[in-house]
Amino acid sequence: MDVLDAGAGTGYYLKEILDLTMPASHDALALDISRYAMRRAAKLPNTVALVWDVWRKLPTADASRDIVLNCFAPHNPSEFHRVLRPSGACIVVTGEPNHLNEVIEPLGMLSVAEGKLAALQEKFASEELMHSETEYLSYQMELGSEDLYNLAFMGPAGHHLSPETLRGKVQSLGQQLVTASFGVHVFIPKR
Ligand SMILES: C[S@@+](CC[C@H](N)C(=O)[O-])C[C@H]1O[C@@H](n2cnc3c(N)ncnc32)[C@H](O)[C@@H]1O
User: Fold this and answer.
1) Domain 2-139+180-189: CATH class, spelled out
2) What does the alpha-carbon distance between residue 6 and residue 19 come to, in Å, rounded to a whole number?
3) N or C: which end of the chain has fewer CB within 10 A?
């Protein structure tokens, strides 16, 4: 099982896939623009982690991957298609409109646009991939001020607000029950 994680971050979800597919032999490639993230991902077993812009040509051969994972990260459908084996699958995870609903406005975060699946399908379908299935997941998380700070700081709010302003907003919110809501979309090569 050969996996590529495009926009892997620290490789948290890649590790879950590797754990699930072990002991089948695998070769994992983690790509991310952040060198700090790649330093963490490089510690995963059998994984090559490269600092790489996923908008560029991906550093792997045509039809060399069984799974392309693309979780809350930029999409490059034509490259995902090029590197997938004919029997492979591209798993794209995106937030749903009510994702993090309770804290979007108070923390100055960006909400997820409606019609995400339709937009994704249009984007991927034109690239010789077709939508196979989608599973929606939703649950509540109890987040304290440190989690809320990190959550807001890693997104656009972290660029628009000073750390002090963000800390103040988080402190005034206190402990929060926050909705996590996302879609796991599977695309496969057209036969
Ligand atoms: C929300 S994080 C998701 C990380 C990981 N997939 C996860 O779900 O834990 C988005 C990731 O995309 C990466 N990223 C953003 N633009 C990128 C680009 N052009 N090329 C590669 N990685 C990119 C960021 O550095 C970040 O690690």
Assistant:
1) alpha beta
2) 18
3) C
Domain ranges of the chain: 2-139+180-189
- Quick check: 4 and 68 in contact, CB under 8 A? yes
Q: What is the pLDDT of residue 139?
A: 97
Nearest CA to ligand 1 atom 8: 71
Q: What is the pLDDT of residues 10-56, one digit of tens each?
A: 999 999 999 988 776 678 999 999 999 999 999 999 999 999 999 99
Q: What is the mean pLDDT of residues 147-170?
A: 87
Token pair for 35: 């060198």
| CA 74 to centroid of ligand 1, rounded, Å | 7
Mutate to test the pocket of ligand 1, among 16, 34, 109, 153 (most ligand atoms within 8 A of CB): 34
Per-residue pLDDT tens for 38-51?
A: 999 999 999 999 99
CA–centroid distance, residue 131 to ligand 1 (Å): 22
- Which of 43, 44, 174 has its CA nearest to residue 107? 174
* CA distances from residue 149 to 16, 140, 153, 169 in whole angstroms, order as listed: 25, 17, 6, 9
d(CA 129, ligand 1 centre) in Å: 22
Question: Any alpha helices (H) in the chain, and if so which ranges?
Answer: 12-21, 35-41, 77-83, 101-104, 116-125, 145-153, 157-160, 163-173
